[in-house]
Amino acid sequence: MYICVCNAISERQVQDAIAQGASDLGDLQAQLGVATCCGHCAETATEYLPGGRYAADVGPAAAGLIGQVEVTVLSRTAVRRVA
Ligand code: FES
């Protein structure tokens, strides 16, 4: 999903920038160019910053998942013909 249509900046790009240290709209503007044209995306982009509505979804670093891997192993089922 695009956050900034003018500059084709995606939600993922905003989340990654914040996970890497962007802490205010100025950082997002400088790093990504978000909200540097019409400005309609500024409020939405700000919601991804710490304290914002979408702040919890800022990637694995914020979730504390870096360095952890979850593995699901599916069991194998043998199918045999019964006479
Ligand atoms: S939508 Fe982001 S500057 Fe226009």
UniProtKB/TrEMBL annotation:
<dbReference type="GO" id="GO:0046872">
    <property type="term" value="F:metal ion binding"/>
</dbReference>
<dbReference type="InterPro" id="IPR052371">
    <property type="entry name" value="BFD-associated_ferredoxin"/>
</dbReference>
<keyword id="KW-0408">Iron</keyword>
<keyword id="KW-0813">Transport</keyword>
<protein>
    <recommendedName>
        <fullName>Bacterioferritin-associated ferredoxin</fullName>
    </recommendedName>
</protein>
<keyword id="KW-0411">Iron-sulfur</keyword>
<keyword id="KW-0249">Electron transport</keyword>
<dbReference type="GO" id="GO:0051537">
    <property type="term" value="F:2 iron, 2 sulfur cluster binding"/>
</dbReference>
<comment type="similarity">
    <text>Belongs to the Bfd family.</text>
</comment>
<keyword id="KW-0479">Metal-binding</keyword>
<dbReference type="Pfam" id="PF04324">
    <property type="entry name" value="Fer2_BFD"/>
</dbReference>
<feature type="domain" description="BFD-like [2Fe-2S]-binding">
    <location>
        <begin position="2"/>
        <end position="49"/>
    </location>
</feature>
<dbReference type="InterPro" id="IPR041854">
    <property type="entry name" value="BFD-like_2Fe2S-bd_dom_sf"/>
</dbReference>
<keyword id="KW-0001">2Fe-2S</keyword>
<dbReference type="InterPro" id="IPR007419">
    <property type="entry name" value="BFD-like_2Fe2S-bd_dom"/>
</dbReference>
